[in-house]
From TrEMBL:
<keyword id="KW-0472">Membrane</keyword>
<keyword id="KW-0812">Transmembrane</keyword>
<protein>
    <recommendedName>
        <fullName>Nucleotide-diphospho-sugar transferase domain-containing protein</fullName>
    </recommendedName>
</protein>
<feature type="domain" description="Nucleotide-diphospho-sugar transferase">
    <location>
        <begin position="109"/>
        <end position="307"/>
    </location>
</feature>
<feature type="transmembrane region" description="Helical">
    <location>
        <begin position="12"/>
        <end position="34"/>
    </location>
</feature>
<dbReference type="InterPro" id="IPR005069">
    <property type="entry name" value="Nucl-diP-sugar_transferase"/>
</dbReference>
<dbReference type="InterPro" id="IPR044821">
    <property type="entry name" value="At1g28695/At4g15970-like"/>
</dbReference>
<dbReference type="Pfam" id="PF03407">
    <property type="entry name" value="Nucleotid_trans"/>
</dbReference>
<keyword id="KW-1133">Transmembrane helix</keyword>
Length: 339
């Protein structure tokens, strides 16, 4: 039989082993919890940092990350501005997104869309739609309300746009800029001019894409990043000092004749309204139309009214048998309120 001393020694070692095992388990649990907490904290800090950047809109690194995410293989992104006035249910922005969904080979382009929110509510709304969203904040300016045409806030907004687009070009990205009151009915990229650094839509198209008498509309622009386009956008933005009472489009209409453009090798090319139409000069053949713009129209309610009809016209057109679309394409029933 074991002596009392031997029995006590075995009990001691047994309790010692149990204590070591318990201590080890507790230590491992603490390490796991610490790592999870550190990871969670790191993830939270990352998300908070990302949101803080997106909210402030003032860190180039964050903007470049968003551009990289949205870009096509050739580093082209689609940019569209958004403010609170355009986010209500049934708003212009809803119609804009709907056009991508019902257009011909356009829905896949949404992943390349970067929405440039001009206020907090527009930014939150964009995030809720799971789109690529960037908050372009301008100190001392509230862009949330509808800016009346040629109002002080309107002018600040359009000139801020030009400066921001220059930033995009300087990062090495090309862009298609589109206002949200432009309906994307067909994929426009095959219809854009090849080997052209700057092409812009028109209110009135005279028939020749090189004709400087065409009336440009900056609601739709396809601009490729190059030394010439960067210099031009700097020149364009600086012109606000001369044309302080005019918007970017009026200034562009004057700058298109400036000798400086020839000096830097910059050339305009204007998009045919047969393919890139609008209410100013509607594209008559629905077999050709790629985008339609609610231009020459004042007031959100009027734009929304006619754009809804436009999308109904388009839905009726695409529901026709192909042979009927080809031989007897219908025409637009708009503009109405915008007429």
């Amino acid at each position: 039989m074991d002596s009392d001393g031997g029995r006590e020694q075995r009990y001691f070692f047994r309790y010692l082993i149990r204590a070591v095992v318990l201590f080890t388990l507790v230590t491992l649990a603490c390490l796991v919890l610490f790592n999870q907490t550190a990871t969670t904290r790191s993830q939270f800090q990352f998300l908070t940092s990302s949101f803080s950047f997106s909210h402030a809109g003032n860190e180039e690194f964050g903007l470049e990350e968003l551009l990289k995410k949205a870009a096509m293989p050739d580093n082209t992104v689609i940019l569209s501005p958004l403010n609170e006035a355009w986010i209500e249910k049934g708003s212009i922005f809803d119609l804009f997104l709907e056009s991508f969904r019902i257009g011909n080979r356009t829905i896949g382009l949404l992943k390349h869309l970067l929405v440039v929110a001009l206020d907090q509510k527009a930014f939150d709304h964009c995030l809720g739609l799971h789109l690529n969203c960037y908050f372009l904040k301008t100190q001392g300016v509230d862009f949330s309300a509808e800016a009346g045409y040629m109002s002080t806030d309107y002018l600040k907004m359009v000139w801020r746009k030009i400066d921001f687009l220059r930033t995009i070009l300087e990062t090495g990205y090309s862009f298609v800029f589109t206002d949200a009151d432009i309906m994307w009915l067909r994929n426009p990229f095959p219809q854009f001019y090849p080997n052209t650094n700057f092409q812009v839509s028109c209110d009135k198209f005279q028939g020749n894409p090189f004709d400087l008498n065409n009336a440009p509309n900056t609601g739709l622009m396809y601009v490729k990043s190059s030394n010439q386009t960067i210099e031009f956008f700097k020149f364009w933005y600086k012109s606000r000092e001369i044309y302080s009472a005019k918007h970017d489009q009026d200034a562009l209409n004057m700058l298109k004749h400036d000798p400086f453009l020839r000096e830097i090798g910059f050339q305009f090319k204007f998009l045919d309204t047969a393919y890139f139409g609008g209410f100013c000069q509607p594209s008559k053949n629905l077999n050709l139309v790629h985008t339609m713009h609610a231009n020459c129209c004042a007031g959100l309610d009027n734009k929304i009214h006619d754009l809804k009809i436009l999308l109904q016209d388009w839905s009726s057109y695409i529901s026709l048998p192909e042979n009927e679309r080809d031989s007897h394409p219908p025409s637009w029933t708009v503009p109405q309120s915008c007429g």
